[in-house]
């Protein structure tokens, strides 16, 4: 049992995987009510993947206990690319795309964590502040001498790439150095003492702590969360249609959690909702058909955090109406004008336009696999065209991608 309520809370929820000097961090959390902690995200997409939610929930909890979170967005490190878990180098993104991604991530996070100027309000920092102004040769002379290449070569992210004889560029190799430097800069500028990350970031975090020690800073600490895997060991948030993002449509987000395996319900209630632990323990006891009620609660509570109470309740109502009452009236709308249907719209295009599929290739595969339905009728023709004939009986059709994703296409 720890002395700090925060660490005890994380352990009870299953959010604590590893910690450097947990005794020292425990004491620090007791002694200092204003601990500053950060988590970093590279901006490779316009949203964060659902797998990042556990770290975001830790920041959210940190704030609730009165401590201050920093969200570090890698405006510069995104252009380098973290080699962790990657067999190949990332494609370097143009600055304009990185900036668009930053805006999308910021917008999503502002619905989950409170940002402001208060003592425990979160702040968003972009590592462009210091990395873009850094004289690289001076950086290597002043910082690079403190980082051991021997240690870096032992990290899983490096060793795995080398063992598979996959190229690891010097640019990527420098990523670990830059992330370590980020931690020390946040310590100097914001008094940050704690870095939080997924368990796959352990080596990078330890590297930053070691750099801080060599630079004579106050002791830095690292805390990692478990990777979000289902009971089969597969990454959470992967579906037949691709990844689930935290800014996905509320209905899709709700549906994802409603359809998880029974064995994952209790753990995800602990990790990804704000429900009291006593209530979760009661839900964990439900079995057979009753477990579906726990899944609905999980789906609603998880969606509420990312999209707000109103959207979560609407998603729940729409799903219950569509699946239990066979009523499509509450599904989200996608509007078409009659003029668009004069020549017709290929079904493959409509699946992409509505957001049910991410590309024409995935839409084509969906149809070929009998996963696309119009008004619950399977469509197997990849050349199928939506026209005014589809709307002769009513003003909308129900378009489905698989068993879980639906949208109401309305004609005006």
TrEMBL record:
A Pfam family per the record: tRNA-synt_1b
Keywords for this protein: Aminoacyl-tRNA synthetase, ATP-binding, Cytoplasm, Ligase, Nucleotide-binding, Protein biosynthesis, RNA-binding
Subcellular location: Cytoplasm
All residue ranges annotated as the Tyrosine--tRNA ligase SYY-like C-terminal domain in the record: 345-407
EC number: 6.1.1.1
Swiss-Prot/TrEMBL GO biological process terms: tyrosyl-tRNA aminoacylation
Chain positions recorded as L-tyrosine binding sites: 38, 175, 179
MF-aspect GO terms: ATP binding; RNA binding; tyrosine-tRNA ligase activity
Positions of short motif 'KMSKS' region: 235-239
CDD domains, sorted: TyrRS_core
Residue sites binding ATP per the record: 238
A GO term from the CC aspect: cytosol
Chief location bin: cytoplasm
Reaction it catalyzes: tRNA(Tyr) + L-tyrosine + ATP = L-tyrosyl-tRNA(Tyr) + AMP + diphosphate + H(+)
Quaternary structure and partners: Homodimer.
Database matches in PANTHER family: TYROSINE--TRNA LIGASE, MITOCHONDRIAL, TYROSYL-TRNA SYNTHETASE
Family: Belongs to the class-I aminoacyl-tRNA synthetase family. TyrS type 1 subfamily.
Protein's name in the database: Tyrosine--tRNA ligase
Organism encoding this protein: Wolbachia pipientis
């Amino acid at each position: 049992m720890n002395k700090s309520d925060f660490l005890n809370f994380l352990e009870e929820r299953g959010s604590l995987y590893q910690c450097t000097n947990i005794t020292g961090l425990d004491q620090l959390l007791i002694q200092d009510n204003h601990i500053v902690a950060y988590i970093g995200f590279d901006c490779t997409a316009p949203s964060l993947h659902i797998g990042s939610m556990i770290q975001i929930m830790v920041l959210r909890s940190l704030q609730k206990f009165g401590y201050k979170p920093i969200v570090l967005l890698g405006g510069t490190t995104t252009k380098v690319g973290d080699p962790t878990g990657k067999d190949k180098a990332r494609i370097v993104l143009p600055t304009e795309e990185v900036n668009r991604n930053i805006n999308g991530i910021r917008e999503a996070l502002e619905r989950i964590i409170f940002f402001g100027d208060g003592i425990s309000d979160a702040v968003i920092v972009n590592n462009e502040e210091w990395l873009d102004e850094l004289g690289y040769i001076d950086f290597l002379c002043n910082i690079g001498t403190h980082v051991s290449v021997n240690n870096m070569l032992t990290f899983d992210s490096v060793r795995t790439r080398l063992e598979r004889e996959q190229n690891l560029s010097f640019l990527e190799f420098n990523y670990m150095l830059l992330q370590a430097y980020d931690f020390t800069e946040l310590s100097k500028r914001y008094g940050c003492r704690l870095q939080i990350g997924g368990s796959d970031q352990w080596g990078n975090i330890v590297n930053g702590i070691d750099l801080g020690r060599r630079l004579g800073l106050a002791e830095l600490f690292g805390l990692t969360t478990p990777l979000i895997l289902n009971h089969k060991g597969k990454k959470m948030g992967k579906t037949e249609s691709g990844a689930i993002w935290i800014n996905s449509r509320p209905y899709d987000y709700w549906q994802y959690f409603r359809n998880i395996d029974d064995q994952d319900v209790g753990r995800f209630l602990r990790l990804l909702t704000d429900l009291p632990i006593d209530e979760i323990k009661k839900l964990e006891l439900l079995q057979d058909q009753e477990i579906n009620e726990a899944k609905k609660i999980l789906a609603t509570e998880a969606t509420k955090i990312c999209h707000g109470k109103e959207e979560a309740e609407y998603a729940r109502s729409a799903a219950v109406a569509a699946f239990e009452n066979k009523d499509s009236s509450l599904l989200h709308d996608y509007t078409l004008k009659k003029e668009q249907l004069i020549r017709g719209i290929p079904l493959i295009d409509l699946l992409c336009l509505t957001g049910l599929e991410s590309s024409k290739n995935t839409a084509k595969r969906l149809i070929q696999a009998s996963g696309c339905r119009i008004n619950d009728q399977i469509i197997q023709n990849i050349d199928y065209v939506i026209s005014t004939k589809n709307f002769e009986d009513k003003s909308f059709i129900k378009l489905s991608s698989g068993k879980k994703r639906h949208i109401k296409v309305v004609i005006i």
